[in-house]
Hints:
GO terms for molecular function: lipid binding. The protein has 2 domains: 4-130, Rossmann fold (3-Layer(aba) Sandwich); 133-270, Hypothetical Protein Tm841, Chain: A,domain 3 (2-Layer Sandwich), CATH 3.30.1180.10. Helices cover 39% and strands 26% of the residues. It has helices spanning 15-20, 45-56, 74-88, 102-112, 118-130, 142-146, 152-156, 183-197, 222-239, 253-259, and strands at 4-8, 23-26, 29-32, 38-41, 61-66, 92-97, 133-137, 163-170, 173-181, 213-219, 243-249, 264-270.
Amino acid sequence: MPIAVVTDSAACLTRSxxxxxxxxxxxxxxxxxxxxxxxxxxxxIEELAQAYRSAARRSRxxxxxHLSASLSGTLDNARLAAQQVNADEEAHVAxxxxxxxxxxxxxxxxxxxxxxxxxxxxxxxxxxxxxxHQYFIIDSLGHLARSGRIDRTTARxxxxxxxxxxxxxxxxxxxAVETVRGAARARKSLIDHAVHAAGxxxxxxxxxxxxxxxxxxxxxxxxxxxELAQELRAALDAxxxxxxxxxxxxxxxxxxxxxxxxxxxxxxxPALE
Length: 273
């Protein structure tokens, strides 16, 4: 019997995609404080334990794959919830820090979803997440700066007129991998970094080993997302990258609180079996 996989809504999986692959999703929460500002909070221990127990009814082996501990306290609650379930149920819940979020987290969860056992699923999730790249461009760094998700050096870029950083989600947090001027150049840089991560030739310097990859593109503006998809497809083809799947995903509302409006993202991960 395949393992059961549980993740959180930072994976940005659509309901149909999660259902098709038997993945349970626990929601991150959004709130409005007394000043009218939006904030987020992690799922409770009880919510996570309930999700793990539900998954354990399908399979005794449950892989709980969550967003990076550098971005959220979800992993702390996940470990406590897993301890409860492992003590109370005839199940084994293994909790993994993906070290990433968003599309890269989705690709890792999907890679693990068809695993034959927990060891196999854990290996697939670890490899997918560790070898993945999650890039974003956003209209303003203000939201990330206010929530403390970026360092002070990166935050200062938000005050420089016209500067658009290309952000990457790394295990240690979010960092700027390049800064450019203007929205058009930012989108081109976003695509270049994704193509390079896919083994293409968009950037100079050492390239990752060429091999089949899966991608996820993300955004909330349908027009901008369609343009990004077309430009990315053309760039991947021109660079000789081998892609076996490209998903189009939304951006979870909790992530939108931190990224702000207008965000575009691309995730690249190896195609694993």
